[in-house]
UniProtKB/TrEMBL annotation:
SUPFAM superfamilies membership: Metallo-dependent phosphatases (SSF56300)
Pfam families, per database record: Metallophos (PF00149)
Superkingdom of this protein's organism: Bacteria
Species this protein is from: Embleya scabrispora
Entry protein name: Metallophosphoesterase
């Protein structure tokens, strides 16, 4: 059995269409939307609406962790958008989702990232593309549990939920062979981004599940340039499957 795993697709529809080549199934750990591109300022919803200079200013504020100023700055720009921010963002996200869901090979098993908009997914999911969150599926005789989204941060991305709700989804999954999450367990080496030079939020609930249920594998993304891409916790191998938008290469899982 061969399964390809991707995370942090961020608009890379052409690469996504090739991500399942040679595999029996594709697993996607979320973050389909490209709102801001920290490496290419010409791309993303924000740049399309407000231009490169405004994008550069917003990213400078975020990178300096001046989050309140960043929200005030972006709010001043959104105030001038006809129909308001919500309408403009939803229209742009829908255009991206139409291309991305059409690109998914089948079968694909998909969960949400923290920048995704779950309420829109039913409009684009199709036969052979299974959306899972707090649920379990069997792939090739192994059980895969899926936990989507992220935890609350000063960034206020679209699908951030409380620690309690996130923990409830982890508990609902229970004991599985492979635990698939968007965010990593709360371990410093796995949550520190060496380029952004900051810690992203990891999940204490996932870390507890590792100690209590001992899955063979925990797969995740979210941290684009982690201090460590993989480590073992007890008998569980924890793997950051990589920043797919940057590499275009899936993580390959065989058994």
């Amino acid at each position: 059995m061969r399964v390809h795993v991707v995370s942090d697709v961020h608009g890379a529809a052409e690469a996504l269409a090739r991500a399942g080549d040679g595999a029996d199934a594709l697993v996607c750990l979320g973050d389909l939307v490209l709102f801001l591109d920290y490496h290419d300022l010409d791309r993303g919803i924000f740049t399309d609406l407000f231009g490169v200079e405004n994008t550069r200013e917003l990213l400078a504020l975020r990178n300096a962790r001046r989050f309140a100023e960043a929200r005030a700055f972006s709010g001043s720009l959104w105030a001038g958008v006809p129909g308001g921010a919500r309408q403009a963002i939803e229209a742009a996200v829908r255009r991206q989702y139409a291309a991305l869901f059409a690109a998914f090979p089948t079968p694909a098993y998909v969960t949400y990232g923290n920048v995704d908009v779950p309420e829109l997914w039913p409009d684009y999911a199709r036969e052979g593309v299974t959306v899972l969150d707090g649920q379990v599926v069997e792939i090739g005789g192994r059980t895969f549990g899926f936990v989507g989204g992220g935890l609350r941060t000063p960034m206020h991305t679209p699908y951030e939920i409380s620690d309690e709700k996130y923990a409830a989804k982890v508990a609902a999954v229970g004991r599985v062979d492979v635990l698939c999450c968007h965010i990593p367990p709360a371990v410093p080496d796995l949550t520190y981004d060496v380029v952004a030079r900051r810690f992203e939020r990891g999940s204490e609930a996932v870390l507890r599940a590792i100690h209590e249920t001992e899955p063979d594998l925990v797969l995740f993304g979210h941290v684009h340039q982690p201090l460590r891409a993989r480590m073992r916790i007890g008998r569980t191998e924890c793997v950051n499957v990589g920043h797919f938008q940057a590499t275009g290469k899936p993580y390959v899982l065989t058994w």
